[in-house]
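B., you asked whether I could sanity-check this one before it goes into the benchmark set. Here's the sequence:
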Amino acid sequence: MNTDILYTHIRSYVQVSRDEFELFFNLFKTVYLKKGEFHYVAGKVPKYWSFTLKGCLREYSIDNQGDEKIFQFYEENAWVGQVESMMTQKPTNMNLQALEDCELLSITGDDMCSTAKIPWIQHFIIQKSFADNAAIAENSNRIKSASPEELYLEILKKRPSLLLRVPQHYIANFLGMRKETLSRVRRRVAHL
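And here's what the prediction gave me:
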């Protein structure tokens, strides 16, 4: 298997030799998901922390009224998983579903915990966590303060592939608006 994609990704966060990386990489296995399958479900402890090689997934929860709330979409080169749930062995409240056939490189929670003592992996996890937390906070603030049109334009600019891969009603849910509102916004933007 070609390890270059994951190696390059990890090197964007930390310096690691190819030999050290290969020892870590040997703990991964390839997991394939068909469209509609779940990588983990609410109420259970996820088994894997995974790197997306191919495909698109959505992470969502279900609120007290039974409505889905989409938290994030993940595409190629994205990590997916509930690391805190795996480390504490407490069930997650999130679901991760494949929107397309997916290929993931996956490491178990136990293997991740045992390798987290290695300095370069520890540094990678810390750097990755900081980056992820900053992105979550930025996304949350943006959704609270931006207009529907601004939110749509941002996806159009930063993640246009989502608009081709993800059903419109999921995009609307992610942006915190109704599908009809998103349709109106798309028509207005098309005329700009």
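One thing to flag: The chain has nine helices and eight strands. Otherwise nothing jumped out at me.
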